[in-house]
Design goal:
By secondary structure, the chain is α+β, with helices and mostly antiparallel strands. It is built from three helices and seven strands, in the order αβαββββββα.
Amino acid sequence: MKLARRDVIAAVAALAVAIVCVRLGVWQLDRLGQRRARNAVLAARLSLPPLVVGRATSPDSARQRRLIARGVYDFSRERVWRGRSFDGTPGVALVTPLRLVDGSAVLVDRGWVPSPDAYHVDQALYREPDAITVEGLGFIAARGRGDVDPTALRDSAPYALLPLVLQQTGTAAGRGLPRRWPAPRLDNGPHLSYAIQWFSFALIIVVGTGALLRKTTILGPS
């Protein structure tokens, strides 16, 4: 039996949707490949020996690498990265200049502290020992919207600020605050499962459409 025009149009539309689903699945596989490549680069950087931060440290050499910095915190020039959350709880990040032994300084993201409005916080409650050795990961600033940018603070600081941020790792003493940010995740993310879902949708559409068309040709339109 010959297919009706509406059946042909519906089949073509279903095929178009299936093609879109396949393309979305391929796109997710591409993203998976990009993520794996990024993870490989990051894992290689993290496997390098820790780099001691000093005046000559460049952002490229410190980026996504384990760092060690020794110096004294300048809490009087501490900055706040507002609008930060930790496990869904609003708060801010405390970014404090650490004056190094060579006279320069590096901004240290000491971690997250709670703030009901993610804006105001009593910074004095979360001070740590002034003289300290800090270990963490290096990032090029600014890391995101609202982040503290050392290049914007150069004129107001009495020391040379390195153009990077040391994101402190480990655990804070006392109440565990500030809470250090977790290390970067090196997993594959959701991309593979998303790709499987899109390919499954495409298969369901094709098989379902084929079954309906076969039923229509055998039994005729309902």
